[in-house]
Design a protein that fits this description.
Elements (H helix, E strand, L loop, with lengths): L10 H9 L11 E4 L1 H15 L4 H4 L3 E4 L5 H20 L6 H9 L4 E3 L2 E3 L1 H7 L16 E7 L8 H8 L4 E7 L15 H13 L3
Parallel strand pairs: 1-2, 2-5, 5-6
Antiparallel strand pairs: 3-4
Length: 206
Amino acid sequence: MKSCSRANRSSSGWARESSGAKNAQLERVGVVGLRLGATFAALFCEEVVARSEYEQLRTGPLVLWDPLMDGESYFQELLRSNLTTQLAVYGEVREDREALRERIRAGGAVNVDGYELGNALFESCATRALLSTESKRHAGPVLVVQIATTDQSKDRTDLQALAQSYSRGTFLRSKEQTFWREIKPFYGRAHDLQKTTLAWMDKHRV
């Protein structure tokens, strides 16, 4: 395996790897993704329909937990996380965001919370409209969940529009902490997210 092979994989590369998981013996296939994984799941399902492949997935359930719509803002957030780590480890910022971007463009990788970020992924995903709200072709039931930390958080209009872009889309909210980050409390299970998702699955007989 080449060094940093996963760090240098683009969004389309991840989609191709997912397509390799096909199994014609399965009667039905669903896809679940969180954050960037949810965005990849949505893009992958559209690619499957465009290629007229994998009929089980084309009509199968798709669950998108807090998908990323704006890739540019997300990847800037990742670089800020690296700066925070530098401050904690060295007491100073030794490479600013522009220096980190230059390292990525030169073929290197930047460590973000233990994961390596390479050029192919950065260039393919660091775009403002990473996931559009245009009408989608996926024909199965789709759940778009906004993960909110408080009840006072407003509904995200972009996620509502995303759910509406699917013929069988549903938008729901779930109250959870940002468990995908390094937070102080131990988060063994996202109870409300699980409850919300399972209730939707029961309703749609998924």
